[in-house]
Amino acid sequence: xxxxxxxxxxKFYKRFAHKKQFQTLKSALLSRSxxxxxxxxxxxxxxxxxxxxxxxxxxxGVIGRNGSGKSTMLKLVAGITKPxxxxxTVQGRVSALIELGAGFHPEISGRENVFINGIMLxxxxxxxxRRFDEIVEFAELQEFIDAPVKTYSSGMYMRLGFAVxxxxxxxxxxxxxxxxxxxxxxxxxxxxxxxxxxxxxxxILLVTHSLGLVERFCDEALWMDAGSMKALGDxxxxxxxxxxxxxxxxxxxxAAGDAKAQESATTVSPDEPASAVLPDNPIESATxxxxxFRATEGRWGxxxxxxxxxxxxxxxxxxxxxxxSGERLDVRLKLRAPVAxxxxxxxxxxxxxxxxxxxxxxxxxxxxxxxxxxxxxEAVFSIESLxxxxxxxxxDVAIHKIDGYPYDYHRLLxxxxxxxxxxxxxxxxxxxxxxxxxxxxxxxPDAPDKS
Amino acid sequence: xxxxLVRLTRYRGLIQSLVARELKARYRGxxxxxxxxxxxxxxxxxVYSFVFKYVMTAAHDPKVExxxxxxxxxxxxxxxxxxxxxxxxxxLISGGNLIKKVMFPAEILPIVTxxxxxxxxxxxxxxxxGFLVWYQRPLNAGELALFPVAVAIQLILTLGFALLxxxxxxxxxxxxxxxxxxxxxxxxxxxxxxxxxxxxxxxxPGQEMWQATLLKLNPFTHxxxxxxxxxxxxxxxxxxxxxxLLGAISTVFFLFGYFVFDRLRDTFAxxx
Lengths: 451, 272
Hints:
- Chain A is an alpha/beta fold.
- Helices cover 26% and strands 31% of the residues of chain A.
- Helices cover 74% and strands 0% of the residues of chain B.
- Chain B starts with a helix and ends with a helix.
- Chain B has helices spanning 2-7, 12-27, 36-55, 67-89, 91-94, 96-101, 108-134, 141-171, 174-188, 209-217, 219-231, 240-271.
- The model of chain B has no long low-confidence stretch (mean pLDDT 85).
- Chain B has one domain (2-271).
């Protein structure tokens, strides 16, 4: 039996022309267009021709970017909004965890709100009374249940809302990204509750950005993109496809951001002395004085030697902006020296999003003695294994005299992102392995770490 | 539409709790709390008594004494009517969170508004009853039997207006502002602070027919007159036929209001 059947469902939202926004009753009556004006002038399709069925007892995870129609989909299943075309059929009682505590009245006590909220969600007064203690216990609000809801912290408010909604005992549970309602402990409790629902053969439709949750918890995944179904099926496969797609678009975004940063940096005149940009900063090396940690983007230098182009390439030699932790990364600098120069140092620095220097070096530090540069040249800084934790990083690249006089200094103009399956923290990931004596045993997680 | 109307009966419990919540929340935090429901109409009556006894002694018809009590008979139901309309016009917008996030029949919101105001009306009635006894007004059981009829008719009429206005205000927000002005005019176009018969007095010169006609077309006139005849004036309630006619019209109007509400229902979640 299918708990949820969605057939060719589309949802159009009205977008009114500029004129309509200033429409009033009076003018509508005067122009006799009251009824006509309730029709949309223009439409925006939030959900386009979606068809899927969810058999009873299954769990479906809906993923997708912001604005892809996930929440609209959920509201359609909940019956809060009606589809413009197509049909939605749901068997059994539905509880939607869309906005927790919607309908709580701030002035009255938690106790009264639990009753009203429960009745709103479809319970009778008696049913709420029977579950009341359980609800309060779940929300961990025993002490405060008789205080007015306005005195609650936002976490308490959400917990109470969640507790009521989850105790409605629905056949179909719709969840819209509400797991972030409490501390770690509460989140675990929510997950346990979901697992219990699953065990009891309830149907769950989960909208979330937590891909790990979808992989672990869902029987199926639906990926929505710009209102349409992009993929439906095995969670691992769908999540994988989605992650790849997100990386691609991140790639494009970073490329666009980089181009913009570099463009605006060139508005700093190349003749401008370095002191104008960082007045008290004699540039000695990329890891030099404390001032270098000031995260001011820019580009400066005399351009006697110019860094014409900076590209980051991955293991396949393709230009990229998104890399996986542990992969190869090459920073390629295209240099041009119109006249032959003998005093130069090539430097590089990697900064994380907080502006902390993760690593910096230059040819002088590494005791490479510059001999001569003339004409077009290329310098490649190869990182065999990019052992950084997940995050966004920025690059400094520079070419300058040994005494610091800059030829061309690119400060934080190049951005790349490191992705990692392992959510370790910090700045640097040393190559490591765990070893234990025999008294210690571990079980492998269900989803093996793919990093 | 009828299906939805029947479905409403399933939500009795919810309506009940929401009305209770509305009443509790209104005075939560004030020292006297629920007593304000009594004190407000009492103070109103005392102010009117003072004004008409000591300030505007000559401003009214000598046949109508005590004048403050007479006015009170009209003002109480009017307050119920006008606050219901004023509040319900904005109720879908302020309750937007519920309509957008919870499966919830939206008509409950205006209905709760009307009912909560009705409860306040009942509290006022207790004060009114006290003063009717104090002044030893002639009341008789036959006349009082008509009182619940008048209340029921007013309830149906008010619900009709509340549904219609709440639904239309979602699309035309101007209604709220228009309404507040209109209600002021409406108040003076209803025989509440003056007795209805001042327009039927043949001895008064310059009496114009249109005023009397306007007064008769105003549905609340008939409610106000009925209340005054039942509670204030001695003698039989001569207005009962028109009251029953108004009852029939109100029922039709209520169905019309519900029809409009039902037609616009699906647009609420997107517009509020």
